[in-house]
């Protein structure tokens, strides 16, 4: 079970385990905005509803140098699961400059790709194939913009994610 953490200004900050959320609440660093009463957290002396959304009591400045770590899932999400060559549904990742020619695993060299285009391209560059990229591969935006694209947000998070968009 995950918990959405909001900054004091209601911007989405992160998603943490419910255990971490309980620790933040009990330490006085956060308050519960939404909780699941059907699955309470119990100890010997305390019972409280399991938090689903918490808000920090003090504003925390998000780090500007925060980067999103490179992953296959991240590349597919950045490219909206669309092939960078033909625009169809993508299920794999391709190196624009093939690894056999020194291409690196970087945000600017990896794109989402369908199996057909990946097989046709092989170890050639898009220019050699006469293809052009439909997207400009670059690192995704960080912070709340990246967080807004949470893959499986809990049902109760929608109003709080909308609040962050208005900010």
TrEMBL record:
Superkingdom assignment: Bacteria
Stored SMART domains: HNHc
GO MF term set: endonuclease activity
Transmembrane segments: none
Keyword list, A-Z: Endonuclease, Hydrolase, Nuclease
Domain HNH nuclease residues, every copy: 70-119
Signal peptide coordinates: none
Name listed for the protein in its UniProt record: HNH endonuclease
Species this protein is from: Brevibacterium salitolerans
């Amino acid at each position: 079970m995950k918990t959405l953490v909001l900054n004091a200004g209601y911007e989405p900050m992160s998603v943490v385990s419910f255990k971490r959320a309980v620790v933040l609440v009990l330490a006085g660093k956060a308050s519960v905005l939404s909780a699941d009463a059907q699955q309470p957290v119990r100890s010997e002396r305390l019972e409280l509803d399991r938090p689903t959304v918490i808000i920090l009591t003090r504003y925390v400045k998000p780090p500007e140098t925060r980067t999103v770590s490179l992953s296959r899932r991240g590349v597919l999400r950045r490219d909206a699961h669309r092939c960078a060559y033909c625009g169809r549904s993508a299920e794999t990742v391709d190196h624009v400059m093939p690894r056999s020619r020194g291409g690196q695993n970087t945000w600017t060299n990896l794109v989402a790709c369908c199996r057909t285009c990946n097989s046709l391209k092989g170890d050639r560059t898009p220019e050699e194939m006469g293809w052009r990229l439909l997207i400009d591969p670059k690192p995704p935006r960080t912070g709340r913009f990246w967080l807004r694209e949470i893959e499986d947000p809990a049902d109760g998070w929608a109003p709080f994610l909308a609040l962050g968009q208005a900010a």
